[in-house]
Write a structure and sequence with these properties.
The protein is an alpha/beta fold. About 35% of the residues lie in helices and about 15% in strands. The strands form two sheets. A seven-stranded parallel sheet has the order 3-4-2-5-6-1-7, sandwiched between helices. Strands 10-11-9-12-13-8-14 form a seven-stranded parallel sheet, sandwiched between helices. Strand 12, helix 13 (about 320-325) and strand 13 form a beta-alpha-beta unit. Helix 2 runs parallel beside helix 3 and helix 3 packs across helix 4. The longest helix is centred in the first third of the chain and has 14 residues, at about 80-90. The protein is globular and about 65 Å long.
Length: about 450
Amino acid sequence: MTKFQDLGLKEEILKGIREMGFDEAFPIQEAVIPVLLTGRDVVGQAHTGSGKTAAFALAMLQEIQPRKGIQGLVMAPTRELAMQISGEIKKFGKYTGIKVATVYGGQGMGLQLDALDRGVEIVVATPGRLIDHLKRGSIELGDITHIVLDEADTMLDMGFIDDIQFILDLAPEDRVMSLFSATMPTEILRLSEEYLKNPKQFLLDADDLSGEGIDQAFLVIKDRDKMKYLIDFIKPVKGQIIVFCSTKYRTRDVAKFLHQEKFDAVAIEGDMSQSRREQSMSKFRSGKVDILVATDVASRGIDVPRVELVVNYDVPNQEMAYFHRIGRTARAGAKGRAITLVSYSSVGDWNLIKRQIKVNLTDLNKEMGIEISLPDPLKRQVPSRRYGGSQSRTGYSRSSRPGGYGRSGGYGGSSRGDARDDRSGGRKKYGDRGGRNSYGGRSRW
């Protein structure tokens, strides 16, 4: 592997890299950094944990000059990811004299204005709050030389495409731009064609969706039995754990149940205030609590290297959401584990995801001797991606009215639907909270 010192980076940057304990570049860093340093635009398809943040951050730090105004702009879909990116840039640029400001909704404008008034060279922002600053004149883009769009497909899913175009139209045409996305839907390709100049494309992770380095397993059970099996899986774990749920209602109930069972757990979901979300993440990152319960959208930006186990309490509706989730473990080449709890109504969605997994999966039903008793309709027909299953794209439950709650309490919703759910707020909780007695046996997995 190529060492960072061979990429032509300044000694001030190399000092920060060494202090963080890094010496050799990841493949995406080795490929992307030299191209960005030549002034050419980049489109990168990369999943969570591939090292893309360092790829664009190091190239940006190399070119930006201290005390010359805002020269670098990074746009991210969520406040958590924006804060994570800012933190990484600050660590890499510790000895460069370059200052970073993070602007996002949910934090008081005064704090952000104070940071900007002290003078910064790089701004990491969510699109909506960035536009607020642009309109009031507290941020100007006239001196911008580097622009990054991170997790562009998520920003598209969250409805930010018009905001992004508005911002890019205000930026100078003479700039270096990079776009990173886990998937490349048509709208993202159009965006790159319109705003990037002859970009070099890196699809380093397009064919690597296996979750290599992660021991992956699944268990097909009734939805109401999930909580008791969750307890059995997390009890033996020594390190930290993330439990992913499909909705904020489920997140709250799982976190409450874990507290009742005397586990140290915190939750992150869309209706929480920003201060509470930051407090929860701070406790988890510092190791004061062992378990984080989160929705997909609210969890963007989770980067904790010590996560030993990821539990998919609910099956995600989109394949890439699955790989984003399990990628929270096995960071930076480490090993990790992931368990997916598959309710009977989600078997169809799970089968679609399994087709994309290229490593051997552990079937816990066989290992634990648990029989699957699927209703006949599910045995005969796999629900389609668009219409079937309790977690369909439209949010319709198989056995209830649109927007309703199934008998077991599973609320329909894809990761895209979860984004809307997190922002709009709901009015009713589902009824069945599942069993409260922990499962008596011990899994061999």
